[in-house]
Design brief:
Blueprint (H helix, E strand, L loop, with lengths): L4 H22 L4 H28 L3 H17 L5 H11 L4 H5 L5 H15 L3 H13 L4 H14 L7 H24 L5 H28 L13
Length: 234
Amino acid sequence: MGNSAIVAELDALVAQCNQEIAALYLAIPTIPAAQVYVQQWGIFTRHSRRCWAWVVGNCPEVEVRRFITKENLYEEEGQIETSHYEKLVRLGLRLGLERREIDDATPLPSTNLALHVWECLTKNYPWKEGLAAKAVLERSGFPDLRRIRQQNWQRALQLSDEDVDFFALHITADEIHGSGAYELLERYVRPEEMPAVLAAARTSLQAWALFGNGIAAAMQARGAVLPEQAPARS
């Protein structure tokens, strides 16, 4: 029998984090604000593949390794046509960035600190804790906040559906990735392991809030309108 309680606990942690990080999804961007978003998210996207690989390296379970390798490594990076990073690069180019400005972007201090947290959780902690740390990130903002983000960007920046394929992909693909990772945790995490697994997920989401709110502040400094700034509707 699986550990069904863990899914409810993880969902509650994600819901709380969504409230803390909502500004990132609700921001009305300008071109310079969107550019800094793309640069910082590109750093995260490249680093995320390394984190998944560390979970695979720590995990003795073939089923888990196979899922991560197929869904989070091969699909997201191994194939150019489905590479999440390449889709993000195309968005950045549409926004006026050069490729090197995305590839060689300097992380914000908040981004840098968050990356170190995720590296530690996935590289140095037991695989179940590392998997939980990554799984909750797949569920952040899902799906409503992600749809609002896509709509805001399209309206504010006159972007086509093709331009924002990166955002659309993260509504469809992360449903598979997040749900699949949750199912693995439900099956493999024993009740006595839950406190440590939930603690890792909570720490990961704290790093996510730091990362996301750091980007939101950088976007605001470049003219983005955050929710509290939005004019009241009559």
